[in-house]
Amino acid sequence: MPSVALPKPVRRFIDNWFESHNPPSRDSILLHNRRLYILPTRFGYLFAIMLLFLFLAAINYQNSMAFVLTFMLTSLGIISLWHTHKNLLGVTIRMQIPRPVFCGESCEFKFEINHHNNARRYAIGIQYLDQPPVYVKLEPEGSVQAKLKIPTHRRGEFHPAGITVFTRYPTGLFHAWGWLKFDLPVLIYPRPTAQVKLQQSMIEQYDGQTSTSTIEGDDFAGLREHREGESLRHISWKAYAQGKGLLTKTFQGQARPSLWIDWEQMGQATTEEKLSFMTALVLAAEREEQKYGLRLPGLVLEQDFGNAHKHNCLQELAVFRQPEANREFRIEQD
Amino acid sequence: MSRTSPQIPLGQNLPMHSIQHEATSRACVFAVCFCFLFSIAPHFANLPGWVSTIVVITLGWRGLQNLGKIRELPKWMLIPLVLFGGIGVFAEYWTIVGRDAGLALLTVMTSFKFLESKRQRDMLILVFLCYFLIATHFLYSQSVFTAAMMFVNLIVITATLITLNQRDDSVSLWERVRGSSKLVGLSVPLMLILFVLVPRVPGPLWGLQSEQRGGVTGLSNHMSPGKISNLIRSNEVAFRVDFKDQVPAQNRLYWRGPVMAQYDGYTWTQIPRKPLNRLNITVSEPAIDYTVTLEPNGEQWLLALDMPIRVIKGSFMTRDFQLTSKQKVNDLRRYSMQSRLDYRIGLDESPDYLEIARSYPDEYNPRTIAFGKSLAQRFENTLDIGNEVLKMFRQQEYVYTLSPPALGLNSVDEFLFGTRRGFCEHYAGAFALIMRSAGVPARIVTGYQGGEYNRVGNYLIVRQSDAHAWTEIWIEGHGWVRVDPTSAVSPTRIEQGLDDALAEEGSAFRIQNRNPIFGNLLYSWDNMQHSWNDWVLNYDQRKQRDFLNKLQIGIESWSDMVFALVFLLLAVTALYWFIAWYRERPARPQLYERLFDRLLQKLSKRGFHKEPAEDTRTFLERLPHRNFAQRKQIAGIIELYNHIKYGRRGASTRALGNLRTMIDSID
Asked: Which of A254, A50, A31 has its CA nearest to residue B135?
């Protein structure tokens, strides 16, 4: 929308009004009368101007059929206002909890759109800002899924605002929409720096006296309960087959070197570059199945590994020095 | 990276416009092409051939391009094309405004617009142009048929609009047309409310281009007997007349039109129109009241029964008693009129007008002039001269025919003394010249004679084929007296009409003669057209006021109309809304679910709430075993409920009855 320069207090009033009438939802959003808005599209206005011209011409030529046509088209406009609104009224949208992504990837939002009405609804679009929309069609009492891919530009918690569900069906003269504001933020990890190698300096060697049982090592030490995130390679499938549940084999002996990914060691770089590098290191360590810990100013994550640990580390990197939840939308100061 | 405010300005984020830049699907392009072709097709008769050709070629090109058979036209090509179109239209009409030129220009430019249209936005604009094109149809015709076509057109265009907005090419054509018909159908009641109640403003608002319009007409501004040897034989309606009382006898129905007093030896023309200052008329019979619904004739003629005694708004009466409109009659015109059949006019006719009415050039038609002069010597009384001529027409071998031989320069001589075959113009022209050469002031009056009575609608139809010409001679003490020489030759023409007069020539203009079997049906059809003219095409400010007064529901002023309008529109849309809500409402839960809900409500009053996701049996487990008298019954109900819901037998009437009794027994 070409930004209409509204005075700031007016702007703020409008924003507050919308804000208070569209509380974010954790579950599903039902498009009822108070959540549904409708305005003419640019073509709606063009249509109105055309009607005005026709009306003046009809008066001027005193042409009765021109009056009939003008009124017919006016009625068509009124009916399509109602139909466009009706096409969204009573639709429920549920959003699946989105999976975290790395900054720069597009994150995928999955919506389940359903209704209980005995009507067919066409061309229901879901759109993020001015990205290309996704259209779905609802059969009577039907339910469909829509996936919306949103590009990410900043790490942190991403509360997408500006996702709308809209329709212009049937005539395109009106744009009815509702805001899909879910209280389900996406975690956006920092963008990993490409091509990193674990450096020697980060790796703390333990001097041979490892006595702890680890899943790495040479001598089999026994079985313990499987922890989430541990590689499936270390599961004792034999024990599982005997019905003992998921057990992990542990070994005694020389542990693999473990490492610390430390903010202080990142050298001279901007915050973002450091975080990107650390992200890449977490991924590399995870890939090479090494134990690793994370040291950030004011925060230490003990050495461990596995999916849960990886997620914890990436989360901390994502929200590091991010005082507010990162809310993505288009405003002038961007 | 900037810090952002915690508020989410939703209002700023309305992403309405990127949608219009989306590309359209192949099906949409075809739909829009068809839509344009459909709305322009009726105009092919009104457009120059090259414009129609451009339409066909550009649409064909766009279609092939859509199929991927040919390349897209480079954008710069459009500039010369548009220039060519504009210049072409100008060369054709010497203007680019006005009805015909405007339509041609609109058509050419719309066609070229197709060549560059790819996106949703372009397609929507083209569809709007198609809506606009419907309006241009009504500049050419406002018949019932055109109106019916408007609805078909609206359905086609709206279906295209739906296709563009549906985003689903798998929808069948039928489904689209159905959706569009539904929209159009729902609009009709609203349109009727608007049509009746939107306050009408008298037009025009700005000056209209005076353009020659109207179809075939049996009348003309000049008359040259012998020039055209075939009269227009058209059964098109010239006007229809509703008489307040009885329809006068056929031979008294002279509809006065253009009066011609100027004669150059070959052609009769009108003298410059000067308004009559005062109508001096002497009468004996009561006046006749009637209403004329005049089809557009493209001239200033207002036809009225001889002799009109009222002048309507926007018209005047010339000094030769011709009712003349100030504006050309380009649209249907309806007016109430009053006439006297028995009258005397022009007793005090000015000498200079009489001078014009006596003059004729000497160099043509010498035999006729000599004959007239000889009559003046033989008879003293003016009336006797006239009667002598009529007697000659009656007694000698004069024939009334619509296809007389063509005549040369001395046309009256050739006709009177040679061919002796002609129709009203020949007889009137000859008679007037004879009278003039005998020194009697005479002039030609053209108009229509007679008319066909429509017994279904109780009104008179006057057709172009009823066009007629007669004469008026001026007699001292009598004023202008009507003499119809044709009646001397062919009395049936005047008594019964043209069809009977020309029975031998096999002419059939009238319904009763054309089709005696379906006569009533055709009369009904004509009656419908007449009502259409009356109620739809003539629905102006006055008609609106009369109609609303007749309803007697207290709509009198402008503000009443607006109030009623808004109220009715809201009422109808509310009704629509209710019907749609009722038809599309979510299905009601099954009876057993509703009964079971009643049980759950009873239990929750006692403090036992079932979680939505909880299984009924788990819920039963949760209910306390002690101090709970009806636990057993509840267990039975849950058992039955599950049996009905999941069992093979389903919900039999008996099982439901049991469930209801059991649930009702719980307190």
From this structure: A50
Say if residue B307 is preceded by a cis peptide, omega within 30 of 0: yes
Judged by a CB distance cut-off of 8 A, whether residue A52 touches chain B is no
Question: Which helix (H) or strand (E) segment is A110 a member of?
Answer: strand A106-114
Cis omega (within 30 of 0) on the bond before A170? yes
Q: What is the dihedral of CA B198, B200, B206, B211, to 10 degrees?
A: 100
Residue ranges covered by each domain of chain A: 10-189, 200-319
Percent of chain A with pLDDT over 70: 81
Instruction: With a cut of 60, say whether residue A200 has pLDDT above it.
Output: no
Question: Which residue in B9, B19, B190 is closest to A78 by CB distance?
Answer: B190
Secondary structure (DSSP) of B298-338: SSSB--EESSB----TTEEEBTT--EEESS---S-EEEEEE
Query: B145 CA to chain A: closest CA distance, Å?
Result: 12
Q: Two tokens at A73?
A: 């088209």
Token pair 């991403």: residue:
A158
**pLDDT, average across residues A8-28:** 82
Q: B-chain residues within 8 Å CB-CB of A130?
A: 15, 17-18
Measured CA to CA, the distance from residue B434 to residue B369 in angstroms comes to 6
Angstroms from B171 CA to nearest CA on chain A: 10
Consecutive H or E run containing B293: strand B288-294
Asked if B164 contacts B124 with a C-beta cutoff of 8 angstroms, the reply is yes
| A80 contacts in chain B (CB < 8 Å) | 183
Instruction: State if pTM tops 0.90.
Output: no
- Token pair, residue B222, equals 């000049």
Give the residue among B336, B315, B318 at the shortest CA–CA distance from B326: B315
CA-based nearest residue to B321, from B443, B495, B171, B457: B443
Tell me the DSSP string of B79-126. HHHHHHHHHHHHHHHS-S-SHHHHHHHHHHHHHHHHHT--BHHHHHHH
Beta-bridge partner residues of B469:
B446
Task: Classify burial at B54, counting beta carbons within 10 Å of its beta carbon; exposed 0-12, middle 13-18, buried 19 or more.
Answer: buried
The torsion angle over the Cα atoms of residues B241, B247, B253 and B259, rounded to 10 degrees, is -40
| φ, ψ for residue B291, nearest 5 deg | -125, 130
Average pLDDT over residues B17-32: 78
Do B286 and B338 form a contact (C-beta atoms < 8 A)?
no
Where exactly are the structural domains of chain B?
Answer: 18-166, 222-514, 591-665
Least confident of B15-19, B130-134, B376-380, B477-481: B15-19
Query: What is the value of ipTM here, to two decimals?
Result: 0.78
Q: Report the C-alpha gap between B21 and B24 in whole angstroms.
A: 9
Alpha helices in chain A (DSSP H): 8-21, 42-61, 64-86, 237-241, 271-287, 307-319
Active-site residue identified among B484, B499, B526, B534: B484
DSSP labels for A24-82?
A: -BSSEEE--GGG-EEEE-HHHHHHHHHHHHHHHHHHHHT-HHHHHHHHHHHHHHHHHHH
Per the CB < 8 Å rule, is A164 touching B4?
no
The pLDDT tens digits of the residues spanning B392-402 come to 988 888 888 87
DSSP assignment, residue B586? P
Q: At what angle do helices A64-86 and B558-584 cross, to 10 degrees?
A: 40
DSSP letter (8 states) at residue A106 = E
pLDDT score of B41 more than 60: yes
CATH number belonging to the domain at A10-189, selected among 3.40.640.10, 2.60.40.10, 3.40.50.970, 2.60.40.290: 2.60.40.10
Q: With residue B182 as reference, give the H or E element that holds it.
A: helix B173-197
Sequence-separated (6 or more) residues with CB below 8 Å from residue A143: A112, A113, A114, A115
Q: Which of B79, B77, B40, B44 is nearest to B61 (CA)?
A: B77
Mean pLDDT estimate for chain B = 84
